[in-house]
Amino acid sequence: MAHFKSGLWLTLWIIAFTFPANAQLIVTTPAFPADVDEVEVIFNASLGNGGLAGYTGEVYAHTGVITDLSSSPSDWKYVKTNWGQNTPATLLERIGDDLYKLTIGPSIRQYYNVPASETILQLAFVFRSGVKVNNQWLEGKTETGGDIFAEVYPDGLFTRFNFPVASALLSEPGEEIIIESVSNEADSMFLFINESLTKSVAGNNLLDTIISPESGKNYVKILAKNQFETAVDSFYFYVRQPAIIQELPGGIIDGINYINDSTVTLCLYAPFKEHVFVIGDFNNWEFEDEGYLFRTPDEKRYWITLNNLEAGKEYIFQYLVDGNIRIGDPYAEKVSDPWNDKYISQTSYPGILSYPATKTTGVATVLQTSKTPYTWEVDNFQAPPKSELIVYELLVRDFVAKHDYQTLIDTLDYLKRLGINAIELMPFSEFEGNSSWGYNPNFYFAPDKYYGPENDLRRFIDECHKQGIAVIMDMVLNHSFGTSPMVMLYWDAANNRPAENNPWFNPVPKHDFNVGFDFNHESPDTKELVNRVVKFWIENYKIDGYRFDLSKGFTQKNTLNNTTAWGLYDASRIAIWKAIADTIWSVNPNAYVILEHFAENAEEKVLANYGMMIWGKMSDEYANAAKGSSTSNNFNWASYKARGWDEPNLISYMESHDEERIMYRILKEGSVANPAYRTRDTTIALQRVQLANVFHYMIPGPKMLWQFGELGYDISIDFNGRTGEKPIKWNYTQDYRRRTLKNIVSSLIKLRQSHEVFSTTDFTLALSGYQKKIQLNHPDMKVLVIGNFDVYPGSMVPGFPETGKWYEYFTGDSLSVTSVSDAIELRAGEYRLYTNVRLTKPETGLGIGETDETNVVIADFPYPNPLNEGQLIVPFYLFEDTDMEISVTDLSGRIVSQIYSGRLSAGEHRLKWNAAADIKPGIYIVTARTPSFSKSFRVVLQ
């Protein structure tokens, strides 16, 4: 609908009345309320999202106003109560079944206590149950889950259509369209169809019925007038013909097909549907012949070619299916989200598109021709062998404060120095919300914008590859969530689940651990989707492999209410996974396929021997041992050989995103049996984590650690809710005890990478009880690891494989073994790592780096030094935002270069100096300064 009044009021009119849910959900008396009026609001709970339909308890309004100072429709002002607070002023009166009345008075301005200096534009509502039902509030909102708005009018004449309630209407030939229009102060009203006057009445109400013609777009206008003013409202209706049957052009696949710089062919897979329109920026979001999709002869696909697009321009668009389903393209590589994009800062995502809130509802998608391709610096990265993987699992949101890829790039030096050779990112394809673990996906081909633009992701992967670090994508294909276009296309509203004819999803999940909506992985359509997804990220982002979430759920065997049966050997599930792995390896034969499986060993063995890698959860065992418990503390299952597997394809771990942090468990549950050695003491607890790490890394096979585990992260997984944001604890590096733990972890990782013995297949394990040991044998070296997990001193026979000189790695001490049956005394929590070849003693003591007493850690000296090619890298870490200046001077104090001057955010940074060609070889001074810190280094330019 279009209103005659000023542009501002036109915009607000569209927001308030364009979409049916808003106009139907509430009715106001008077119909055109001013801020000085008392207003009755009638709420129909059976409409909109129906969240309060049938509810018989008290209903309250969560309500505020939109004023001329509001920044967006979500920026409510003068909200009456906090969420969940019940007051008489916000209690609705029940006036019938699902009908409620709220009286706002003595005037709108007085009810909300809005200053006279502010203009009230709209009333805003969410209606709520007075008490929680099944531990959650029942909410009355719009059909799409949005807030409800009613316009507040200034003085003057206004008119509107009460019916129809939409600004655009789809119709069929001969269909009756009921017209009802009202005005506040009109003395006469006139109805026009396609600019021809069809009816006029005296007064301020007009009723009529029109019959839709044969085809095309038709415009309906109401004109209201009185002696002083004229007001206009309008809508259009499009008369739809049956879909035109036409073959799909050759080479076109489902999704967005870029033909050239100005042409795109869209193809939507939608069996059983009757008709589809495309609406978007390219046609002003209106129904028209040029946006009506062809149907293929098999009635499974709809397609259209869009011409005359502007090269390089981003266009937001949607499909309207069967007149009432608005979805984005399932294969789109970028989405426009009405609920979440507005909270993403320009810093995280520069130039983020504004959602067309006055044009449509629901998640839309983006197409762009002639997109500038990313230029990869590393084209043929050789990922580390599976058996040598040290995977660092992280959630961008909880690892770097700015939660973006650029800051993550700045932190790679830290991870490289730690020694890891793979990073596993928790899910980053588009998911619902912004702050999330990411296991609630809706679009599988689009990077979530909360972490930054797509090319920042590519740049992060490129930088990882330059550092020799593989990137593993956490992929969620067990399920999808409700804003997925594939869920929405076939939806059973009556049962609030996917419809029986949904090509991709099971109406009822097949296992108890499902969240969201369960994929049917035996469906050919799901198989096609999965194949497209797993190829896409390797081909377009050079991902080195996947960790698949809930891989045990990829089955059609129904095990609801029987989790034991869910984990039993399932040949059909094995076949599904072999087919997925084969698809991945057809693109990259060396790609990692990692499963979070947790099925019985007979099944995992088949998958591992086929070449897949399996998560080996050992969190309880390591935590129990570190706590000083004598039960459930056997590490034996961390070995692939103990499981009877042929290949070392078990990724064992002490912590993951899903497990309680080992340090937290020790501090909360650790043994206090020995008053002189209480494991709940922070210093002792950190030493116990050292002990656990020594055994974790010395068992042959790939390993994984969770972010900040190398620093003894001790915040519970349930802090701020299980999936809620967690404190980012880079300040741990200021604690020498935690730096020592980090250095020990780093030394263990690098030790594994330096000697073949740590990949040997000739090893024995004795990992039950308090005293544990590992023996590794290789022609080049033998290794013996022993440790005492008791809270009291203990004696054990290490069982050295031979007599002679043995060297303790961490202390550098030597031991002459004259009898392999002699016992060794170990203090509580003590560990030793012996080799029969002397190795360089690692620097673990107080940790690397130099720390001032405020907010800077120079994490390492600038490198390389000397500079052979004139490029210097200065790595450092900031604990809080600060001003930083880094300059280069010669020995006389003359500044020859300014590396950086300005404000820097908290986090790790790498700043580069490229020495100019006219700077002579010699000694130079690099100085880093903040308001509270100064540090200088000598560097040599050759």
Automatic annotation (TrEMBL):
Listed transmembrane segments: none
Leader peptide range in chain numbering: 1-23
Keywords for this protein: Signal
SMART domains xrefs: Aamy (SM00642)
Domain of life assignment: Bacteria
Ranges where the Glycosyl hydrolase family 13 catalytic domain occurs: 393-752
GO biological process terms on file: carbohydrate metabolic process
Gene3D superfamilies according to UniProt: 2.60.40.4070, Glycosidases (3.20.20.80), Immunoglobulins (2.60.40.10)
Similarity field: Belongs to the glycosyl hydrolase 13 family.
PANTHER family reported for this sequence: GLYCOGEN DEBRANCHING ENZYME
Protein name (database record): Protein containing Por secretion system C-terminal sorting domain
Native species: Lentimicrobium saccharophilum
